Amino acid sequence: MKTLKYSRQRESIKACLMNRHDHPTADALYASIREEYPNISLGTVYRNLNLLVETGEIQRLTCGDGADHYDGVAAPHYHFMCRDCHQVYDVPMEVIASLNETAQAYAPGIVDSHSILFFGRCSCCLEKEASEKNMEKGVDKTA
Amino acid sequence: MKTLKYSRQRESIKACLMNRHDHPTADALYASIREEYPNISLGTVYRNLNLLVETGEIQRLTCGDGADHYDGVAAPHYHFMCRDCHQVYDVPMEVIASLNETAQAYAPGIVDSHSILFFGRCSCCLEKEASEKNMEKGVDKTA
DNA sequence: GTCATTGCAAAACGTTTGCATGAAT
DNA sequence: ATTCATGCAAACGTTTTGCAATGAC
Question: How far is the CA of A7 from the C1' of D5 (A)?
């Protein structure tokens, strides 16, 4: 374990991530931070995100949409990613409480209590599709 | 939806994936298939894997270890990836039955019934670490 | 004959790394 | 003075793409 020195860049990255309530990619975060530090480099953002993940101050989310996402909330919770719009949503602990009991009975000690990723389609996308179907059936005003 | 034409390469990729009981990456699959078709290109492997995922004949697993993995078993089941050794394990449906009820109650229609990815550490790695700890405490024969 | 598929190589993408400079301790 | 962090650019590994040639229908 090496000693970390203070860096205003790292502090800014962490602060920026904490203040956002979405789950930005490294690149999105880079764009945000550039407003305050126009000279910061993408490499620095990646390096610091890795450090913060190592120290457990932030979480990395690999959702399969190409780029990793980052979460400023270190406290245990779950994530749900929409296959359509690639939005990442938080899923509170309570929802999964019963799962963990089941999982532990099956494979004691194996399943982490807070590392589960759900995939599906979010209500926004489901509603959008539903209204598009209605359009087709009824009077199509888009034609 | 465009019409698919037969291709022996695609057939071979599918057959190869079905016969394996692990969850290979595109590159590992490419290596296997080269034994039968030495001229097949990596691009073709990727193109066909994408087609097979689209038609639902195979599953793509994004586990965050750099490369995507593929699963020849299309039937619903879950996956568990070890953070240490990056092995991907199957988790049978029964284990999760109770979870889905809970999830549906929370977010009806949102959570897919078979798209959950678990992260943790497998028993192999846990045992390995345990025996290493014993080594330290007892007579260290590695020194 | 038409259109999907192939092999190849180049490009794209997200991420990491080497290096000389600069900042923190 | 030492050691870590930075900016930049080059390199990396994975995946996609453009293209001319081949194969399925």
Answer: 7
Q: Are B13 and B48 a contacting pair, CB within 8 Å?
A: yes
Beginning with the edge strand found earlier in the chain, give each strand of the sheet holding A111-120 in spatial order.
A88-91, A78-82, A111-120, B111-120, B78-82, B88-91
* B61 and B80 part of one domain: no
CATH code at A123? 3.30.1490.190
Inter-chain CB proximity A120 and B111 less than 8 Å = yes
For residue A123, the distance in angstroms to the closest alpha carbon of chain B comes to 7
Q: Are residues A37 and A95 in the same domain?
A: no
Q: How far is A105 from chain B (nearest CA, A)?
A: 9
Is the C-beta of residue A4 closer than 7 Å to nucleic acid chain C? no
User: Which residue out of A110, A115, A123, A129 would a mutagenesis test of the B interface target, given it has the greatest number of B Cβ atoms within 10 Å?
Assistant: A110
The percent of chain B in helix, strand and coil, each rounded to the nearest 5, is: 45, 20, 40
- Domain closes at, from A32, A59, A74: A74
- Between A and B, how many residue pairs show a Cβ–Cβ distance under 8 A? 85
Burial class (CB in 10 A: 0-12, 13-18, 19+), A69: buried
Cβ–Cβ < 8 Å for B44, B62:
no
The pLDDT of residue B112: 47
Q: B78-82 and B88-91 as β-strands: parallel, antiparallel, unpaired? A: antiparallel
Note the pLDDT tens digit of each residue in B15-49.
Answer: 999 999 889 999 999 999 999 999 999 999 999 99
pLDDT at B109: 45
Q: Where are the alpha helices (DSSP H) in B4-121?
A: 8-19, 26-34, 42-54, 97-106
Q: How far is the CA of B20 from the C1' of D25 (A)?
A: 32
